[in-house]
Amino acid sequence: MAMKTTDLMIGDWVYIHEPVCKGHRIDFIDELGFQVGADGEVYDDCNIRPIPLTEDILVKNGWRKHTMLYKNEWYGDICLFEEYGKFYYMDLKIEYVHQLQHLLRLVGIKKEVQL
């Protein structure tokens, strides 16, 4: 999935395809692209990919799983549920780390998500 400048906010975590694909935080966005990290390098849309939201990332950031009969509930800063390996907040599917970051900001939670 290619990303556009309109998909992201400053502080979002993304993968950048360099020689090695690594997670980076967006530091600056303008019409020319995304600036990440201390190196100040600017990347265009074709170099940016979303980071899939995983169980490991949720656990690392304080969420705890409660297994139900048909789905798992995740308790943390907000309550998420998991069904067939997909995460949801109410009826909203949360597939990527940056979507979780946007949701937390929208509900007023100031949290630095760790990869």
Describe the protein in words.
The protein is mainly β and 115 residues long. The chain has 2 domains: 5-49; 55-106, no CATH class. It is built from 2 helices and 10 strands; from the N terminus they run βββββαβββββα. The strands form 2 sheets. Strands 4-3-2-1-5 form a 5-stranded antiparallel sheet. The radius of gyration is 15 Å and the shape is elongated. The relative contact order is 0.18.
Question: What's the structural blueprint in terms of helices and strands?
Answer:
Blueprint: E1 13-17, E2 21-30, E3 33-36, E4 41-43, E5 48-49, H1 55-60, E6 64-67, E7 72-75, E8 80-83, E9 86-89, E10 92-94, H2 97-106
Antiparallel strand pairs: 1-2, 1-5, 2-3, 3-4, 6-7, 7-8, 8-9, 9-10
Q: Can you give me a brief rundown of this structure?
A:
The protein has 115 residues and is mainly beta. The chain has helices at 55-60, 97-106; strands at residues 13-17, 21-30, 33-36, 41-43, 48-49, 64-67, 72-75, 80-83, 86-89, 92-94.
Salient structural properties:
115 residues, five-stranded antiparallel beta sheet, single chain, 2 helices, mainly beta
Q: How would you spell out the order of helices and strands?
A: EEEEEHEEEEEH
Q: How big is the Rg?
A: 15 Å
Strand content: 35-45%
Structural class: mainly beta
Shape: elongated
Count of discrete structural domains: 2
- As a percent range, the share of helical residues equals 10-25%
User: Mean pLDDT, rounded to whole units?
Assistant: 84
Distance between the termini: 19 Å
Spans of at least 5 consecutive residues with low confidence? none
Reported for the largest beta sheet, the result is: 5 strands, antiparallel
Strand order of the largest sheet: 4-3-2-1-5
Number of helices: 2
